[in-house]
Design brief:
By secondary structure, the chain is mainly alpha-helical. It has five helices and five strands; from the N terminus they run βββαααβααβ. The N terminus and C terminus are likely disordered.
Length: 175
C-alpha cells in the first residue's frame, strides 16, 4: 500500500484499486486549521477554524456569564455549529471513499471535527486563564489524545476500514 501526502490529503493505492480522500485533513493539519495557521483549498480548513471560534465563544461566555453581551444569541451560536457540522458531513459524503464492509463509526466527520475544535478551544482557555500546572497538563494531554484518535480515524477512512454516518442533517436540498 502506497500513500502520497500533500497538505493533509492522501491517495492510498492498495493492490490495483485507488481510494482518494482529497481534502481530508490529517491530524497535524487539522490542528493548524483550528488554530488559524493553515490555508489551502480544502473547505475543511475554514470550517474547522470557524468551529474552533464558535466553541471558544461558547466556552468564554459559559465561564464568565457576567461578561456576556446583552444581545448574545446562545441558540444562534449553537445553530451555527450544527450548520457547520452539516456542511462538513455533506462534503464528506461526496469527497471521502465509502466502504460497505468497514466497521461503523459512531460519529460523523463533522461531529468529530467539532469535538476536536471544542477540545482545542478548551485547551486554549485553560492555558490562558488557569494557573494550575496540573489543569494545564490535563487539558494538554486530553487534546493530544483527541488528536491521536482523529489521526487513527483518518488512517481508517483512507484504508476503507471505517464507515462514517452521513450525519444528522444528511444531504440538504440546494433549492
Amino acid at each position: 500500500m502506497k500513500a502520497t501526502t500533500q497538505t493533509g490529503t492522501a491517495r492510498m493505492t492498495p493492490d490495483n484499486s485507488t481510494h482518494t480522500a482529497e481534502g481530508l485533513l490529517g491530524a497535524r493539519n487539522l490542528l493548524l486549521a483550528v488554530a488559524g495557521n493553515l490555508q489551502g483549498a480544502s473547505p475543511l480548513i475554514g470550517w474547522a477554524r470557524e468551529l474552533a471560534d464558535l466553541h471558544a465563544t461558547l466556552n468564554a461566555v459559559s465561564e464568565a456569564p457576567i461578561r456576556r453581551p446583552a444581545d448574545f444569541d446562545d441558540a444562534g451560536l449553537r445553530d451555527r455549529i450544527t450548520v457547520v457540522i452539516g456542511l462538513i458531513d455533506e462534503w464528506s459524503v461526496f469527497h471521502l471513499p465509502r466502504t460497505t464492509t468497514g466497521r461503523r463509526h459512531t460519529h460523523s466527520l463533522g461531529e468529530v471535527i467539532s469535538h476536536v475544535a471544542d477540545t482545542y478551544a478548551q485547551l486554549q482557555q485553560t492555558l490562558r486563564h488557569n494557573d494550575s500546572a496540573q489543569d494545564q497538563h490535563h487539558a494538554t494531554l486530553r487534546f493530544a489524545q483527541i488528536q491521536e484518535g482523529y489521526a487513527s480515524l483518518v488512517d481508517e477512512i483512507r484504508a476503507l476500514r471505517v464507515a462514517l454516518p452521513a450525519g444528522r442533517l444528511g444531504i440538504r436540498s440546494t433549492e
